[in-house]
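re: ur question from yesterday

yeah so i grabbed the chain u mentioned. its 333 aa long if i counted rite. heres the sequnce exactly as i have it in my notes:
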Amino acid sequence: MSLPQLTQYTTEQIHCNGCENVCLITKMKFASDKVFYTGNKCEKIWTNQGENVVKGSNHYNYKQTLLLSFIRPKLNTNKITIGIPRALNMYENFPFWSELLYNCGINVVLSRPSTYKQYEKGIGTVMSDNICFPAKLVHGHIFDLMQMKVDRIFFPFVVYEIRDADSVSNSFNCPIVSGYSEVIKSAINTNKYNIPLDAPVINLDNEKLLKRACWQYIKQFDIDKKTFNNAFNDAVNTFTEFKNKLKQNCIHIYENAIKENRTIILVAGRPYHTDPLIQHKLTDMISDFGVDVISEDIIRNEDYDLFSDLNTVSQWTYTNRIMRAAQFVASNG
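ran it thru and got these structure tokens back, copy pasting raw so excuse formatting
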């Protein structure tokens, strides 16, 4: 007795090269010529969803694209080139630093996207096995910039981020984000390669102090004060516009999802979760199922009185934003 067509199939194994996971895919072809794939951790390359699937909007991809738009072409090969690691709070602040340095006549280079191979370049200099993975990634990005032969590496010691809600007590970075440039100085001797690592102390929450600290750093490159003032004002305005665009894109996705009765998920995280390697492309997996994805960017400059009845100090910028995002979801669910 012959088996029905449904149970007659052949198998073929394929390595997917769509990302660093290199999944081993099993392709099952049935007698009816239908094909089914299994073994993949996502369905970006090999999918069973058919040709008519509608993917959801992914705000994280928009954010990544917007950040990369601030990578500027080289001004002049004779100009100094400053490298910035694509890590930690640079996923929040890179637009400000890129505009400031570029408009002062300085070439700006961003390290290349995170990969496991890049991570392995710096793993030997990681000083604590218990440190978070985003911090461990920094080491690889520093080595990447040195391989790109930049003149200097810029990785500021940012104590305060911008406070984007009046009800919170402070706007501290976590100690790792704030001070990891000092860890890098102890772990990697960039001067051995004649590449200084610059880590000026920065307060982004006070524009007067921010401007003073930026000038103290910039003036060593023989930049005149007028050029600096214009560049600083442009950087502040660009930074504000960047954050507004992030918020407006989330609002646009959210309102369309409500109008079309689509499922929407707010994936709340810290700025460096924009890095596909850190978030393991989770947001792509969600949007591949036809679900729209937004982030905590939707509540920027929106205030929720979360802590008035609690005996706590709301002092961590990224955590405060995540808490306010949770309140937004609870209020609009």
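noticed a couple things. The chain has a mean pLDDT of 90. also The longest strand covers residues 9-15.
anyway ttyl
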